[in-house]
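Protocol step 4 of 6: structure prediction from sequence.
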Amino acid sequence: MKTNLWTTLWCCILLLATAARAESGDLAQQVLAETNVARQDPQRYADYIREFKRNFIGKGYRLPGSLDMVMTSEGKGALDEAVQFLSRQRPLPALSWSPGLAQAAAELVRQQTASGATGHGNGGDIRKRIEKYGSWRSTIGENISYGPDTARQVVMGLIIDDGVPNRGHRKNIFNRAFTTAGGACGPHPVYRKICVMDLAGGFKSR
């Protein structure tokens, strides 16, 4: 039986695209799971950051198995400050997964995968984008990670919040008003990986 070459190539493309979407969804789910570990057991995350600090040389660090140095703005001081915060932080309830918020996050991932841009999208209008996919209650927020490609590195980075004076990403993670979240991850042409997590006090998907 003869197989059309173009049919074969198209099938391969579809399989690769499906695998990429599955991988992206899996990583986003893992980021939510790690976020919930941090919310429910802040002391455990303080230990993770203490362990991570061992990889630092000056203001840079190496991830295990890599020879590349990643430079930070604040160095170990930001890690020490995060550990102090976590040591005082009381446990919070876990966030539930929201498919609608995941769609809103995926829209931004698609945009920035194509453009290489950073930030919260066109005009930074998070609310407008989120409301395409449903109605939110109480409050909304958004965390974006660039670079890290494992869930723990994503969440640790957001908690440490190096170079962000108000530690806004950390505040989102430990905001008691948030009850649900949805996320998406994908490739980024400049920073290798992007993960977006949208959060709300409640969300009803369309």
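Step 5 (inspection) to follow. The first helix runs from residue 5 to 40.
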